[in-house]
Task: structure prediction
Amino acid sequence: MSNVSDVSVGLAHEFCITAIKAGFTPDDISALAQNEDKMRKVRQFWQNGCNLIIKGPATLIVDRTKPFDTVAFIGAGWNVIEEEKAALKLTEVDFSKVCFENGLKEDESSVTGEDKLKRLKRLSGIRLDAKYGQALYEEKGQATLRFLHDTFGLTWMEFAGTVLRNSGGDRFFLCLYRKDDGSWGWDFGWLGLDRHRGYVSPLLAS
Result:
């Protein structure tokens, strides 16, 4: 990953000149410069060869004959206390069509997990559940997770379609994160902690 220090003033000036020639206005450039989310989407478009259609790996299949087993996957003392009912009906998802939401307003830098959950519930998308997190983690070669990193730059996500509770009564999301070696691990995020812009959750259009 490049550092800000790698970008010279001359290079930044050249970028702005090219953007103006391409039809961007100074207001457009200012809006992009001040909005990391929009700039990230521009980067995703660029990495996809400036194509609007993104081709991902094969559709991920989930076995719904068995519910998410907290004891088998996480350990004793954990329970599912809330689930997105629409997500439980999904048996396959094309992750190239999934959007990733952080629940933040444009002028915010962070939001608690509980507030993020409330905001995501007000959106029209289906919050993918922990069973999809398990399927992504256990997929052979973690092909879909590698695609999501290579295409969208994702290194962390949490599944807001399932709320977990530990033996102490605290509420959590199941999370997946990218390791230094390129593989992905799992964890759980307490809903009392703040989430920043990179802390996204997958939503499927309903």
